[in-house]
Amino acid sequence: MKTKLKGVSYAKWGYIFSIPFIVIFLIFSLYPTIYTTILGFTDCVGLNNTSWKFLDEPFKNFETILKNQSFITSLKNTVIIWVMNFIPQITMALLLAAIFTSHRNEIRGKGFFKVVFYMPNIITAASVAILFNALFSYPIGPVNDIIVSVGEFLHKINLIDEPYKEYNFFVDKVAAKIIVAFIQFLTWYGNTMIVLISGILGISPDIYEAAEIDGANGWQTFFKITVPNLKTVLLYTLITSLVGGLNMYDIPKLFLEGGPDNSTLTTSVFIYNQAFSGSYLFNRASAASMILFVLIGILSAVLFWIMRDKDEARENKERKAAMREAKKKGAMNKWQ
Amino acid sequence: MAVVAGKSSGNVVFKILAYTLCILLAVVSLFPFVIMIINATRSTTQIQQHAVSLVPSTYFFSNLDVLTDKSFDPLKGFFNSLIVSSFSTICTIYFSTMTAYALVAYDWKLRKPFFTLIMCILMIPAQVTSIGFYQFMYKIGMTNNFLALILPAIASPTTVFFMRQYMIPSLPMEILQSGRIDGAGEFRIFNQIVLPMMKPAMATQAIFAFVTSWNSLFLPQILLIDNNKHTLPIMVSQLNGDIYRTEFGAIYLGLFLTVLPVLVIYFLLSKHIIAGVALGGVKG
Fold first, then answer.
1. Domain coverage including residue B51
2. Distance from CA of B140 to the nearest CA of A (A)
3. What pairs with residue A8 in β-bridges?
4. pLDDT in tens, A178-202
5. How many domains does chain A fold into?
6. Rounded CA gap, A190 and A116, in Å?
7. Prior bond to A163 cis, omega within 30?
8. CB contacts < 8 Å between A and B, how many?
9. Exposed, middle or buried: residue A159 (CB in 10 Å: 0-12, 13-18, 19+)?
10. DSSP characters for B75-137?
């Protein structure tokens, strides 16, 4: 785009209009990032401590954190909970997206379903976590109420010998993890579904028409056309979900404070607990933050690499090779 | 599409399965919130006898009394949240549009590197840098200050990204040129010509910026220690504490009051919100 008029250059306005963003980014984002990194190498401990110095062994905090059993547990938990939420989430979202975009079978009430499915996503995660804490509470809570009522009913019609008792979900490590993953699933499947629907609607209808003419059935169309064409959108979903999932804080923190026995302790909750409770170990929290930061960076890079467009990469290579060939031949190319 | 007379049985099965799944998921998605709203009107004794009920009761105001007796001030939290969310939304929208404008309308040397930078910081979650952020804010005495939550909103890479995507096809350069010929300065062109043209995109992004800010817990929880400065999510986080341990009616009511503004926004604007998500997803 030419932005010159009567020989006046407007380029400087590009810089001027970017100043607010850059200044605020430097002060409130870049500086804190560097500051966090630096704190990881210091002895900064205790609330409101501003006089700290570098450690003699610079990597002491990182070593301590990596040897910390709770940190390792929190990393494992984060990954486990993320996987337990993401697999059903993407499966359900794909399934719903396929249903909602099906040409052969128009579903009624799509608008209503979309509004309902997306709703949990917009509601304050903190409130959702506390709500689920109340729903699963023991011995009196809606879920236990349902369990007991169903048990009584089944007992009455002689399907089971003993009516079900209330179950204490809060002391069961596996149940607690499943519930956190379920809340995570519930709050995000609608969002993922809508993103996938818009991805599917972006695929050229010609391809579908051609498939129909060739006699492809619903399954074939879905797996051979929809899924491969959604690759970029799926990558986007995967990465945003991964970054969000590795930072999971509100729900595990408020649902059971990371309990029982650290079974829902995620890395972000661990970092918060290190820094803002107990002995205010800012240096170790910083070290843990940086480890998480690097981890997120590596995972995103790996994902980008795995999901990169292989055809495009090959084409690029071929084009470069062809250009090199052409350069070797030199003179001939100049004629063209 | 033409309606085929004899529909194959496969289609019927597909429809039955599809509707069953959709209705089931709708129930699962709505159930927790329906329980929340109904139990907000029921007394703790009623909830203890039967925690699930589809019939509202009449204890709304007595629950409110219990709730507000114990240092829970939903109005205060509401106004604090409103101040933080409104101002950070204004900052996000105005300055993100400005940054996007710089990226779209002008041809400057560092334009491409700057955009790459924005794409990179898109990936950095605020939480991993929060320790340094807190220490920095403490040093300059900005803990308990809403500005610490509002000012960073000026640099919002996600919003810049979406505003840029929207602006590229919809901002005709000819209009800028004619503005210049008429003698308008660059700032005036931006404020009086570009901003009005970007209204639809700004509105959509404003909803997301507002809701994200309204729902955020981590940074406010770290920075706002003073009880008088607490936002709604911080107040919600205290509902789990010991003082409410057995007051179920009050807990449900507290939850209901905190999500009410978001629910109202959502049901008024759900069409725009869902269209906005479809544009490329926004992670809170």
1. 10-62
2. 11
3. A5
4. 999 999 999 999 999 999 998 888 8
5. 1
6. 8
7. no
8. 308
9. exposed
10. HHHHHHHHHHHHHHHHHHHHHHHHHHHHHHH---TTHHHHHHHHHHHTT--GGGGHHHHHHHH
Element (H, E) at A329: helix A310-329
Q: Which residues pair with A54 in a beta bridge?
A: A42
Contact A177, A84 (CB under 8 A): yes
- Contact with chain A for residue B125, Cβ under 8 A: yes
> Is A162 within a domain?
no
- The verdict on a CB contact (< 8 Å) between B278 and A194 is yes
B250 in a domain, yes or no?
no
Amino acid at residue number A167: Y
**What is the ipTM score, two decimals?**
0.86
- Report the residue from B14, B109, B136 with minimal CB separation from A32: B136
Question: Is B184 near chain A, with CB under 8 Å?
Answer: no
Q: What is the DSSP letter of A26?
A: I
CATH number at residue B140: 1.10.3720.10
**Which residues 54-93 on chain B approach chain A with CB closer than 8 angstroms?**
none
Tell whether B149 lies on the interface with A, counting CB pairs under 8 A. Answer: no
Structure-token match 């993407």, residue found: A90
User: Percent of chain A scored above 90 by pLDDT?
Assistant: 36
B190 and B102: one domain? yes
The pLDDT tens digits for B33-59 are 999 999 989 888 888 777 787 878 888
A97/B144 Cα distance (integer angstroms):
44
Q: How far apart are CA B31 and CA B39, in angstroms?
A: 12
**Nearest-CB residue to B277 (from A5, A124, A194):** A194
Nearest CA in chain A to B92: A21
For residue B230, what pLDDT is reported? 92
Q: Decide if A107 and B19 are in contact by the 8 Å CB cutoff.
A: yes
pLDDT tens, position by position, A17-37: 999 999 999 999 999 999 999
Instruction: Report CA torsion sign: B272, B266, B94, B276.
Output: negative
